[in-house]
């Protein structure tokens, strides 16, 4: 049986999972591909820590060149994450004529164009199913069985850490800080959780999804990104009163030659399938012109689900090698010269319904002043709650608006926040009622 040699750069949690899967299911994989996949070399700075995987002598090395430059290795798996040295390693692997499989969404979000172009010049594959949604096979579905569709929307819950935190806050009424601490203790959140809780990880992923769905390059820096650190238990309780749940939602939409790409806390109607995705699970919802709405749910991170996606890509590349038909599909699913650069709609131009919360002094005329300021900026009120009464003290006032333009909402809030009867900065959360 023919052998295809594989090299791995990065032997952390996911790398250990990939090695375990390749070794444990070696016979199964060979029965499905017609080749024996040989994990020839693993490069990592730490080759002494026990990862719970039994490897042959000589497989582990601290010299990455033993992976990148070995003429026998056909496929390089990059699992170190981050921007550098991952970018350098991937580019060198491509220069040496090796196919690349990666789970590195941050790298592709910022340097994808450069990597894809290098791979096209060298005639090699770049696959990255594990970069979005862990073990959820959404990218291969977009490029494969769903490729005949024009997609209108792609949206989802793409970060298990944030979803876990918001789920606990919703179910238990817990505060953000307390749940974050628990998430860190359980290993769901990093010691420095900034990339997760501030929405950066989610923005990396939606940039890839939008590129594949709409055939466009995405300037990552142009994605409006807002995290969950400002969401309070009070907002979650008010959302429940209005019939909503709060999720960190990634949104991509076509809009008359432009695209909307944004990440922010969003109120979703209770009972909608996405609202019911809880805990560390991820969900991606696509809407195509022929298939309609399709929804994927699964574990978005973790050793085993991510390893499953990585090895799936390795198998796909191996089949292409055996058939002598590599690059049957470009990395984004579109021919290279068909990929456009659609402009991103500025956040100030989006139209949405809004949840607004004000901390206002309990005095006569305050509601009238707030309503007047909203009216001055063409914003109409759908419903309102004033919780509690305490003359002269601060009370929360919550307003749900009809659809309004974001720039007008922002202008109204700037005016309202300047009132002497308003304490602190007003809270804004967007509402998505129509998730098709």
Concise synopsis of the structure shown:
This protein has 436 residues and is of the alpha/beta class. The chain has helices at 13-24, 26-33, 65-68, 86-95, 105-122, 138-143, 160-172, 176-186, 194-197, 200-214, 233-242, 303-323, 366-376, 406-417; strands at 2-9, 35-43, 60-61, 73-78, 99-102, 126-127, 151-157, 224-225, 244-255, 258-269, 281-288, 292-299, 351-361, 381-386, 394-401, 404-405, 427-431.
Structure characterization notes:
- The chain is α/β, with parallel strands linked by helices and 436 residues long.
- The protein has helices at residues 13-24, 26-33, 65-68, 86-95, 105-122, 138-143, 160-172, 176-186, 194-197, 200-214, 233-242, 303-323, 366-376, 406-417, and strands spanning 2-9, 35-43, 60-61, 73-78, 99-102, 126-127, 151-157, 224-225, 244-255, 258-269, 281-288, 292-299, 351-361, 381-386, 394-401, 404-405, 427-431.
- It has 3 domains: 2-134 and 303-338, NAD(P)-binding Rossmann-like Domain (Rossmann fold, 3-Layer(aba) Sandwich), CATH 3.40.50; 145-299, 2-Layer Sandwich (Dihydrodipicolinate Reductase, domain 2); 348-430, Alpha-Beta Plaits, CATH 3.30.70.
In total, the number of strands is: 17
Q: Report how far apart the termini are.
A: 48 Å
User: What is the helix fraction of residues, given as a range?
Assistant: 25-40%
Beta-strand content estimate: 25-35%
CATH topology category name of the largest domain: Rossmann fold
The oligomerization state is single chain
Pathway: Amino-acid biosynthesis; L-methionine biosynthesis via de novo pathway; L-homoserine from L-aspartate: step 3/3; Amino-acid biosynthesis; L-threonine biosynthesis; L-threonine from L-aspartate: step 3/5
Pfam families: ACT, Homoserine_dh, NAD_binding_3
Enzyme class: oxidoreductase
Catalytic activity: L-homoserine + NADP(+) = L-aspartate 4-semialdehyde + NADPH + H(+)
């Amino acid at each position: 049986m023919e052998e295809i040699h594989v090299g791995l750069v990065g032997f952390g949690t996911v790398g250990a999972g990939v090695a375990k899967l390749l070794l444990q299911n070696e016979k199964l994989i060979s029965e499905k591909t017609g080749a024996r996949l040989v994990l020839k070399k693993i490069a990592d700075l730490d080759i002494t820590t026990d990862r719970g995987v039994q490897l042959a002598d000589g497989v582990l090395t601290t010299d990455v060149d033993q992976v990148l430059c070995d003429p026998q290795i056909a496929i390089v798996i990059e699992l170190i994450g981050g921007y550098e040295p991952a970018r350098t390693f991937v580019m060198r692997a491509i220069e040496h004529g090796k196919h690349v499989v990666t789970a590195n969404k941050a790298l592709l979000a910022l340097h994808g164009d450069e990597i894809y172009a290098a791979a096209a010049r060298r005639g090699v594959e770049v696959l990255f199913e594990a970069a979005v949604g862990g073990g959820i096979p959404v990218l291969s579905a977009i490029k494969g069985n769903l490729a005949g569709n024009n997609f209108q929307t792609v949206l989802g819950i793409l970060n298990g850490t944030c979803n876990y935190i918001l789920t606990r806050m919703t179910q238990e009424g817990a505060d953000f800080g307390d749940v974050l601490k628990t998430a860190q203790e359980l290993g769901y959140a990093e010691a420095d959780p900034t990339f997760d809780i501030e929405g950066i990880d989610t923005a990396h992923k939606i940039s890839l999804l939008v590129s594949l769905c709409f055939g466009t390059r995405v300037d990552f820096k142009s994605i409006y990104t807002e995290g969950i650190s400002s969401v309070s238990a009070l907002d979650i309780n008010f959302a429940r009163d209005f019939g909503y749940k709060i999720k960190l939602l990634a949104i991509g939409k076509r809009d008359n030659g432009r695209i909307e790409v944004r990440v922010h806390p969003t109120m979703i109607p209770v009972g909608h399938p996405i609202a019911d995705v809880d805990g560390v699970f991820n969900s991606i919802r696509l809407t195509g012109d022929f298939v309609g709405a399709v929804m994927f749910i699964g574990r978005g991170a973790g050793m085993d689900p991510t390893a499953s996606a990585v090895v799936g890509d390795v198998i796909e590349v191996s089949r292409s090698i055996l058939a002598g038909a590599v690059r049957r599909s470009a990395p984004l699913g579109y021919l290279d010269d068909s990929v456009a650069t659609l402009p991103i709609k500025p956040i100030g131009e989006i139209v949405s319904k809004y949840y607004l919360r004000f901390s206002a002094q309990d005095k006569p005329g305050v509601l009238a002043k707030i309503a007047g300021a909203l009216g001055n900026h063409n914003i109409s009120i759908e419903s309102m709650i004033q919780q509690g009464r305490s003359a002269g003290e601060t009370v929360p006032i919550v307003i749900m608006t009809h659809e309004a333009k974001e720039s007008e909402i922002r202008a109204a809030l700037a005016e309202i926040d300047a009132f002497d009867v308003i304490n602190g900065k007003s809270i804004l959360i967007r509402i998505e009622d129509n998730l098709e």
